[in-house]
């Protein structure tokens, strides 16, 4: 799954935990011919992941060179400790979305963590379990690798080889920097998404029918598992609370301004908060990590087979490179809306060419 055909890992990999991430890692490695041994506290989970092609059940005489721990945060440290003891010559890494919590647990127990290298792939899906696993889940995604002064160079290199073979992009960070960063860009967005989705629970059917892509974008990740997120949020509470407090202040500012929109300065407060949002979103990296902004075009297509394929084919004939694309269905109509992003300088020409070919541009 890496960018080149050369496979970097040349030894057995043991995966402990056969949920979405563990099974996806197994699928990606098995597609490259790597021997993958699967272990889980649930034998049925192992057999399901094995049946799906993520590896084989682990044997007592296995000799893994690298072990990937893919279990919930509240037991990550326990499993890392057990794996380090059972396979003292192997390097143990993990995929937990918090890094300080398990590290502090291991240090408090006096565990020798020389062969432990923390990791966290910034990839996932709203649905969990091996049945949702995909071998291409990590392609192009950041994968944080945490090391300390005692980490041997060969151990770090082995983990980075694993990451590269999965098609991910290794990024070295300290555990402290990692937890602060994911608190802002992952954990708080999950809370915001869930709380916004909560507002829909008591909404009228008429209101829900009006929902467009905006509310769908905001609430997309709200279907995530509450049980898992309780563990994640609790383990990274120090990084999350500060962001939530800042968000709470901003919400209060807007709320107060809206209560009396005619008051002096009220509109200025709202405008400044919205403008700050413009500045923040402009910092998000786009294609290939660039901060370049793109123009959007919406094309209306009939909801029938072949329409999207025809549109994409004609875009190719026009030699237009799409920077991003998303598809939305129109409520109550047999119609779809394709929104794609292009560099601003080609927008006018592209709209003209599409209309000449009888496409309906919104």
TrEMBL record:
GO MF annotations, alphabetized: NAD+ binding; prephenate dehydrogenase (NAD+) activity; prephenate dehydrogenase (NADP+) activity
Major enzyme class: oxidoreductase
Domain ACT, residue spans: 296-362
PROSITE patterns to which the protein is assigned, alphabetical: ACT (PS51671), PDH_ADH (PS51176)
Protein name (Swiss-Prot/TrEMBL): Prephenate dehydrogenase
Prephenate/arogenate dehydrogenase domain span: 11-292
Pathway as given in its UniProt record: Amino-acid biosynthesis; L-tyrosine biosynthesis; (4-hydroxyphenyl)pyruvate from prephenate (NAD(+) route): step 1/1
Reaction catalyzed: prephenate + NAD(+) = 3-(4-hydroxyphenyl)pyruvate + CO2 + NADH
